[in-house]
């Protein structure tokens, strides 16, 4: 008789949503993990007879699924949550957020803001996030300490900030940070030009050349508002996405954030380039920026991922909320109740985000050979009963607060709601300090 194989971890769950294959829910299955990777997904009875594990986790009323991928945010701005609410984008940004950042943002602000944001993301099911903000070295340090997977898009603008003086210095510091994390298994550093209206042609051309040389993604706010697009046409005669295309920035590694203004010619450029869309529905709604037509984009074969944006314009980093909002909003915009459906929403929050960041070969779904980035959600016996459809229960009934366990690289980040590598009491204390020290908006 064959002896059971020895492995590091077996997680037994009532349900598993692997995301790939799509539209699949497995009942009474287990995920077998060794050295951080998934080596098998088996019925529970088979797992117990064929494997013996150093650690076994039994989750009798839980869904096990891939960890969520938050494809866009400004994590340190969690310290500006609720600071300047109910304002249009340009006033919010130019009259409140940017002046406050100029006065208060430093490496300590970013470190403590990143701790607050990463703790919230772990608690709400995110295992991989993308960040674009000042002092990106501090965010990378916190992510490393917490054990979170991330993409750090180092910011680039033409004007000075507390972190750099001009575009050349932003790029130089960003590339140095990339060298620091070149071999890191959880942290990937990429280009983060802020937007077409804060970057000149010469800088865009340089970014395009460097990104091509080192095969780096480019993460950029694009077509966020109608005013942005109209102003660009008045100044240059081109829509912003057309300008990026002509300058060589729009490629299969470009991550276009927001895209609330989408014309047919934009879709053609997206199809031709293979660029990705990152939809941030709640931030767009709060700032009245517009509506991203995700059904039209998905029907055109364009990859659409989800992001929360920063908590300063959201006011939370709960990607389950984004799934819920994106799905309902998408149905309303398309006047079609059938799409996006619950499984499509799960894909946008997992495998599509991984694909956007170039990580879909190893995260974004629970498959043999992939890395064990995954979460467990406890389904409430009252608020979600009866459980006619597990995917529907996950997407439509607000589950961020029901995430109980989280793993990245097969390593546990949260056990029964307790975050293992971060001091939540200290994080809350630091947030209260910043609440008291930040000047109030006028």
Automatic annotation (TrEMBL):
One of its GO terms (molecular function) is S-adenosylhomocysteine deaminase activity. Residues 63-412 form the Amidohydrolase-related domain. It catalyses: S-adenosyl-L-homocysteine + H2O + H(+) = S-inosyl-L-homocysteine + NH4(+); S-methyl-5'-thioadenosine + H2O + H(+) = S-methyl-5'-thioinosine + NH4(+). Signal peptide: none annotated. Coiled coil: none annotated. Its cofactor is Zn(2+). It comes from the Bacteria. It is an enzyme of class 3 (hydrolase). Substrate binds at residues 101, 194, 224, 309. InterPro entries: Amidohydro-rel, Deaminase_MtaD/DadD, Metal-dep_hydrolase_composite, Metal_Hydrolase, MTA/SAH_deaminase. It holds the Pfam family Amidohydro_1. Its EC number is 3.5.4.28, 3.5.4.31. Keywords: Hydrolase, Metal-binding, Zinc. Binds 1 zinc ion per subunit. SUPFAM superfamilies: Composite domain of metallo-dependent hydrolases (SSF51338), Metallo-dependent hydrolases (SSF51556). Zn(2+) binds at residues 72, 74, 221, 309. Belongs to the metallo-dependent hydrolases superfamily. ATZ/TRZ family. HAMAP family: MTA_SAH_deamin. This is 5-methylthioadenosine/S-adenosylhomocysteine deaminase. It comes from Candidatus Endobugula sertula (Bugula neritina bacterial symbiont).
